[in-house]
Amino acid sequence: MSAEFNWFPGHMNKTLKNIEEKIPVVDLVIEILDARAPYSSRNLTFSKILKNKPILYVLSKADIADPNITKEWVEFYEKKNNTVMVLDDKQKNIVKPLIDLINKATKEKQEKDKAKGMVNSLINVLVIGIPNVGKSTFINRLIKNKSVKAGNKPGLTRGIQLIHLSQFISLLDTPGVLPAKLENETVATNICAINSIKEDVYPKERVAGKLMQYLFNHYEGLIENHYKISPRLQRPIQITDTFIIFEMIAKVRKWYMNDDLLDYDRVIDAFMRDIIANEFNKVSFERILEVVPEEMEKASKIKNEKAIEDISDLW
Ligand SMILES: Nc1nc2c(ncn2[C@@H]2O[C@H](COP(=O)(O)OP(=O)(O)OP(=O)(O)O)[C@@H](O)[C@H]2O)c(=O)[nH]1
What we know:
Elements: H1 10-22, E1 28-34, H2 44-49, E2 55-60, H3 67-79, E3 83-86, H4 95-105, H5 107-115, E4 123-128, H6 135-144, E5 149-151, E6 161-164, E7 169-173, H7 185-193, H8 204-218, H9 222-227, H10 242-253, H11 264-276, H12 288-291, H13 293-314
Parallel strand pairs: 1-2, 1-4, 2-3, 4-7
Antiparallel strand pairs: 5-6, 6-7
Helix pairs in contact: 7-8, 8-11, 10-11
The chain binds guanosine-5'-triphosphate.
Guanosine-5'-triphosphate binds at residues 60-61, 63-64, 87, 90, 129, 131-137, 175-176.
Domain CP-type G: 13-180
GO cellular component, one term: cytoplasm
Protein name: Ribosome biogenesis GTPase A
């Protein structure tokens, strides 16, 4: 699958331009990431244009992600000195914890302002994220809290909202934008899994195969129990093996095109629908060592060094 299929609608360019115009007044960026794919749901185009701004990552949908993997991602981002907030409880009031984290992440600016004699300086926060990561839900949770006000500001584009989180903190919400180029096939697959790309623009069979391979290899029993099948496949499976699984599901469901031809497309559609509807609750689609290039490189170096050591042991 090429990671360059055409999913980038024109209006996203306009939003990107709008975001660029706001950069000079931005003190902090909040990037909403889907906890099930925190690496793939970043927008690298944003990272480039906002590279000098402090960043606070909000990991949304952690209530439906694999908690152990989310913990690893939080540690990973915190180790890089990023502030992280995890949304793992839909009911919790997040206003106070968010204000505390914003203050922590903008401490340097606040101290600089204080040194210049400015007390209680204003903090402008830009909220960004790719489509469907839960930006509106996050903003609405803040607005629902009585002390938070949503306001209009002349000159703001339609779809961009200004929210007064406190007397001193304003959040500028922006529409979801995807990067114009996706890093690789894994990233493309994972953003399909979190439903940030419309189903009709990606190669569904290939994406479904990759996701089936991933879930089968990482979550023993999950696919077997969900579809009531018992494939005799040894883990880890290859993408070509997923054909056997999809066929078994079609057989169990008695989905045939005619007497002996299985309805493969129907199974693929059903599987993708199950992923998007979150039928496999508490799964994540990526781990650090599977997607972050620097970490993968580090790990492979360690492995190679170990291999050299092992050989030298023999001699
Ligand atoms: N389980 C769970 N679902 C969530 C959470 N946040 C958002 N959702 C769901 O995810 C879907 C997308 O959420 P939105 O808030 O509309 O996402 P968005 O980023 O604003 O999407 P765009 O408008 O496309 O940019 C909705 O069905 C939400 O109900 C969360 O923390 N947990």
